[in-house]
Amino acid sequence: MDSTFNPPAWLRNAHVQTLISSTPLRSWPLWWRTRRLQATAEDVVLHCGDGIRLHGLYNANPLPVRGLAILLHGWEGDAESSYQLSTAYTLHSTGFDVFRLHLRDHGPSHHLNPELYNSTRLQEVIDAIAEIQKIYPHEKCFLAGHSLGGNFALRVAAKAPDQGLQLDGVVAVCPVLDPWRTIKAIEQGSQVYHRYFVHRWKRSLRTKLGHFPELGYADSLLEMQTLGDMNDYFVPHHTQYEDARSYYEAYALTGDTLATLRVPSQLILSNDDPMIPSDDLQRIARPPALTIETTDYGGHCGFLMNWKLDGWIDRRLLQLFR
């Protein structure tokens, strides 16, 4: 399989790549193609210690199994996001068991924990993966994440040996490298992205409030118009950090975060990603276990190859996991 991503000219615009992935042009045909995968998925609640519970979807494979692939979605995405379904379908149809793990307060999991999601809650994701491996033991286990899920995947990989996790390979697709720069790129870039994340985050917070009204932020939420407004309220009130910048720096991949990485890991990023500045790659550690792959095109988690909107990343993941 050719590992070079070279889309036709009409698919080389970063915003076309980023936005079309989430439109009905791709989601409806993909939903139809993956309907059996969705119908046969097993709902799983994982117990992660300290009363924490996370949710996921597991698809076993009738074929001879190549291994288990655990997939992590991005911020305000879920297991039904187009990129998750497409990747899960490709891996499952070629012999992998697949587990699509929901981060806290994503998908149908808002009712499982009273405290709000935040991106520094790494230990519960590590514990969830350990529980998955305990319930569904496999000879080989792989981890892949998109966007913020890619950020989580690499942080998990860096801690995996010390946490007793068996990971044979990790792939991070367009991972958030410097969250502070990413949030600024969203706020100061196209208002389409900014409005999208404000809408999705508010919707999630309203869902959470329906289960835990004692969180008490309903009136404050009505007044918030921007991500900056929301960060200024939720970071000091619902995390251990005093301000938004401290919070975002706490889960950055820059600096020495990946210096101790020993699990074979692949970081894939497009140079035209409108949310992840590719020059942030210059500020991350380069241990021997980490391979960095950049493409000229692809936008943010797009990588659409042709008029059928097939995903190059699906094939690349399959190639790497094989």
TrEMBL record:
GO molecular function, one term: short-chain carboxylesterase activity
Gene3D superfamilies: alpha/beta hydrolase
Catalytic residue list: S147 (charge relay system), D273 (charge relay system), H300 (charge relay system)
Residues annotated as domain AB hydrolase-1: 70-303
Keywords: Hydrolase
InterPro entries attached to this UniProt entry: AB_hydrolase_1, AB_hydrolase_4_sf, AB_hydrolase_fold, ABHD4
Keyword Hydrolase attached: yes
Highest taxon, organism lineage: Bacteria
Any one Pfam family match given in the protein's UniProt record, by short name: Abhydrolase_1
Family according to the record: Belongs to the AB hydrolase superfamily. AB hydrolase 4 family.
Protein name: Alpha/beta hydrolase
Organism for this UniProt entry: Pseudohalioglobus lutimaris
